[in-house]
């Protein structure tokens, strides 16, 4: 094999490695069974979709929340109609004072009809944040929050299989839904 072919093979191998998605089960996140602010029981296992995209935010968020939801919306556009039924976005409010379950659902469904917004008491929200190792801190103005912007990808057993960073491409979201909804791992 000549140098050119070796170089082409090496580049192809490296591109293949970097685009591979790792779906090893992570020790954070997962299912929870709690009551929302309206007194309704909520368990992630009750959702029929094999893939859940869990995201923490709030309806007054000026930047990260709308940008992330817009990225998810763009990521699901190329999916087939059948693939679009295989996932649900679960938006969990980190602002239980201002966000009701209805307001949070309305907010997230503006971006993605196949989504649900959840709002819990302060104590329940904190328990879930700890379970997911999510960062949230109220800013000095008392009106906004600094918060982590990961999308937690959960499989049909509600195990966390991937953390998608806000800097990841929309293709990572698309491929995560496709792979996990196909039960190929």
Detailed description of the structure:
By secondary structure, the chain is an alpha/beta fold. 35% of the residues lie in helices and 21% in strands. It is built from five helices and nine strands, in the order αβββαβαβαββββα. The protein has a five-stranded mixed beta sheet with strand order 5-4-3-8-9, with helices on both faces. Strands 1-2 form a two-stranded antiparallel ribbon. Strands 6-7 form a two-stranded antiparallel sheet. The longest helix is centred in the N-terminal third of the chain and has 17 residues. The two termini are 35 Å apart. Keywords: Copper, Disulfide bond, Metal-binding, Signal.
Characteristic key phrases:
disordered N terminus, 185 residues, two-stranded antiparallel ribbon, Glutaredoxin, alpha/beta, 21% strand, single chain, 5-stranded mixed β-sheet, globular
Total strands: the figure is 9
Question: Reading side by side through the largest sheet, how are the strands ordered?
Answer: 5-4-3-8-9
Q: What is the global morphology?
A: globular
Number of individual domains: 1
Radius of gyration: 18 Å
CATH class: Alpha Beta
User: Averaging pLDDT over every residue, what do you get?
Assistant: 88
Q: What oligomeric state do the depicted chains represent?
A: single chain
Which CATH architecture is right? 3-Layer(aba) Sandwich
Strand count, sense and barrel status of the largest sheet are:
5 strands, mixed
Beta-strand percentage range: 15-25%
CATH topology description: Glutaredoxin
Derived structural class = alpha/beta
Please report the number of helical segments: 5
CATH homologous superfamily heading? Glutaredoxin
Helix content: 25-40%
